[in-house]
Every structure is written in C-alpha cells, then in structure tokens.
Amino acid sequence: MVSEQDRKAGETGAWFLYSEQSEPFGQVYRSGADSMPRIGERLTGGAKWDEVEVVAFRELASTCAVRRFQVIVRVIRPKS
After folding, report:
1. In what order do the strands lie in the sheet with 49-63?
2. First vs last C-alpha separation in the chain
3. Torsion sign (Cα): 52, 54, 60, 63
4. Scanning 13, 32, 37, 46, which has the fewest C-beta atoms within 10 Å of its C-beta?
5. 3-state DSSP helix/strand/coil percent for the chain, to nearest 5?
6. CA–CA separation, 80 vs 78, rounded Å?
7. 27 HSE (CA, 13 A, CB side)
8. Sequence-ordered list of residues with C-beta below 8 angstroms from that of 79, at least 6 positions apart, any chain
C-alpha cells in the first residue's frame, strides 16, 4: 500500500504560466510537494521575468499521470 506522503512525493506538475493580461509566460515542471501551485508563491528566473507571484490557478486535465495547471502570475521584477 502506498502512503499519501509517498504518492505526493512522486507527483509531477506542469505549470502553463500566463500574465494577468493573458500573455503566455512559458512552462515549468515541478515535482513532489511543489507540484501544485499555491497563491502567493514566487518563481524566479523566467525568460521574460526575473520574479513573478502566483495570483490564481486552475487545474487542467491530467496527461500521462502529470497534473497540469494554468497559472496566472503577476510580475514582481521584469527581466532586466
């Protein structure tokens, strides 16, 4: 029997990032406990931004056991 903690440790999430104005901001993969987005979470080092904050998300249909999310982010620091 697989525990809940072991199951979560093996999860993978694909995040499709969009700005608040619906501009595509790329995709990131997360695993384990970080596979699901959290409001207020910050990401760094994107191609179009140095730092963004998650403001909303919704789960999309999973594919090949990968959870997928549309993630809306607010730019905190634009790419310099």
Report:
1. 24-31, 12-19, 66-78, 49-63, 42-44
2. 49
3. positive
4. 32
5. 10, 60, 30
6. 6
7. 7
8. 46, 47, 48, 49, 50
Q: What's the confidence (pLDDT) of residue 48?
A: 85
d(CA 79, CA 70): 22
- What SS3 state is found at 11? coil
pTM, two decimals, is 0.84
Closest CA relative to residue 57, chosen from 43, 44, 40, 45: 40
Q: Enumerate residues 6+ apart whose C-beta is below 8 A from 33.
A: 8, 9
The model's pLDDT over 32-61, given as tens digits with 9 standing for 90+, comes to: 989 999 999 999 998 889 999 999 999 999
Taking alpha carbons only, the member of 51, 61, 52, 56 closest to residue 71 is 56
Token representation of residue 14 = 């694909």
